[in-house]
Amino acid sequence: MREALFVKQNATKWEQFENMRSASPDELADRFISITDDLAYAKTFYPKSQTTAYLNGLAAKLHQSIYRNKREKGGRFLTFWKHELPLLFKQYERQLLYAFLFFLTFCLMGALSARYDDTFVRLILGDSYVNMTNENIKNGDPFGVYKQTNSFEMFFFIAVNNIWVSFLAFAMGIIFSVGTLYVLIRNGIMLGSFQYFFFSQGLGWDSVLVIWIHGTLEISAIVIAGAAGLAMGNSFLFPKTYKRMVAFKQGAKDGLKMIIGLIPVFLTAAFLEGFVTRHTTMPVWISCSILAGSLAFISWYVVIYPNRLYQSSQLATLRHGTESRI
């Protein structure tokens, strides 16, 4: 069957599925089975077409609707963390990759700029911070800045600042994604020059063991916030088969959910920075354990678990569809 005829035969049904907001769980399941049947056909005969991309998005939308209406122990809160948020990470995996690569690129640019321009670090970090750190290095305590404030006070202000940065990175996506890219550029250059400053002082490894105790979660969350902003901005720029405002509203809603999901990550990072990072002489194995644990959690929850969850849901759908046809 030609693609145009396939679309003509099913367009009305797909439009009804897309626009019907309320439905019983059984009706949602029937819709989901119907769409996945169409998606399987499209993937077989039109694997790289816009029709296949559209059906994949509609199937994902219906899948999330089923989980929202499914009763589980622990209620809506548990469902969000166990299913909805990881599936959003899977749905926007390209935006996550783009945000990461973009951030990494400007980290490297910041480091290179600091290497070849002696004034660059002061331009980015400020004279007061550089002078204070140089003084701390002379006094044998290069990371003394983390000890200057009361633990709880530091935790509070760092948490508020990081949450603000994440919401800013997301909200700036409304400027056609350019605003989000600007936030990623600024933070990437700052991190690159900051990290190079310590390497240039012969404190590179020490800075990794201290700063990245909290930085692993903090920087990862900023990248994810950037992906949330790109999800919103790109939904307006590239609505695919949806109406532009419909796509934009959905992208904004999904991006906001990702930002809300980051709040516990930022709180944990702020706790580590306020209460743990200040212990700059802790044994190396403790620092490495915290770093490895943080990196493993981000890798598992943002990449590995969403892919496994998506694959298991696809297999369950295929089994369900086969049983229904039998």
UniProtKB/TrEMBL annotation:
Top-level lineage group: Bacteria
Keywords: Membrane, Transmembrane, Transmembrane helix
Transmembrane segments: 96-116, 163-184, 196-213, 219-238, 259-276, 282-304
Pfam name, any one: SpoIIM
Database matches in PANTHER family: SLR1478 PROTEIN
Protein known as: Uncharacterized membrane protein SpoIIM, required for sporulation
